[in-house]
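[#protein-structures] MJ: dropping Esterase here for a structure pass
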Amino acid sequence: MKTKVRFIKMYSFAIICFLFISAITSQAQELANVRRAPIISPEIGEKMVIFRISAPKAKLVRLYGSWMKSSDSSTNMMKDSVGTWSVSVPRPASELYTYHFIVDGMTVNDVNNIFLQRDGVRYLSVLLVPGKTTTNYFEANQRGNLKKVWYDSPTIGSNRHMYVYTPYGYETSNQNYPVLYLLHGGGGDEDAWSTMGRAVQILDNLIEKKLAVPMICVMPNGNPGQKAAKTLLMDEKIYDRNDPAFQNLYINSIVKDIIPYVEKNYRAIPNADSRAVAGLSMGGAHTISVTNEFPGTFNYICPLSIGVRTITPEFESKLQGVKKAGYKLYWFACGSDDFLWEMAKTTEAALTKNGIGHTFFVSPGGHTWANWRIYLNTFGQLLFK
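AK: finished. structure tokens for Esterase:
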């Protein structure tokens, strides 16, 4: 009888141990499954956007997004039981934004988001919110090609790098195309317009919708001391910016090196009616300079977010040269909150004074890619018509 009781007790203990171990194993498995579950970030909903980052040992994690009112703004995130931090924020207006996390004071990108863009020497996580503004920032159904091209620049004295976009159907047609020379701003390079400006997607969409004429788009590197973007790790030359020879070095290269290369190697229509030049900030200054120094080379002129501080007789004489040579479109744009707004207004007044018929496109906002993408989306529909 005692043996039977002892057996029952041992059996009961074994059952209890089995159930306990099973429960622990089940909980461990559930925890492992939670940990193995992919982290989705950002998760864009109809009204909210959720951001997530795994940082089990962090004490404080915050989110900063370019849609926030100032660079000092950021939002605290909450930590769950497995060390994933998250925060839900109201869905911003349709636009392309950048953001990062601040983990115990350290700025980090969203490792769960493969959508990054390079801004000079830094990479930024991207939030692309669908809507009216960003319709043409997504991939079109009919897509052209973007090629990275090396060309010789005797003017600058080096073999240099640029991007060339050809529209959908270019490779299979015998058609000749007009060309837009699209110039980046200070701190940028040949990659800027295609990466941050979404130039390829904008042109693809405009062309597919028949809102824009099919065109080639050339995006050079506007830094004479660089053979290519810094990511290619090539040596650079330092120029004295006060040297008069430096002032027009790049714009001379546009006319003497880049245009001849493009018109020799692509089915580009080789006349002023089929050439447009546009640029933002520093590239806007290059746009004004290249058309002032080489009037009659481009019949479509689009300086963006730029201006001259003082209108000199020499500058006005150059504008008269542009007027005399003739052009089809002078489209000038700036944001009303741009730090160059006063200079832009001064330049616009000089255009008016000198009889340069033009459009002055004023947008809200400042010196930002949000404006420059809108500008390309707008003037791109006016070219070569």
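MJ: nice. DSSP finds nine helices and 18 strands in the chain.
AK: one more thing. The chain has a mean pLDDT of 91.
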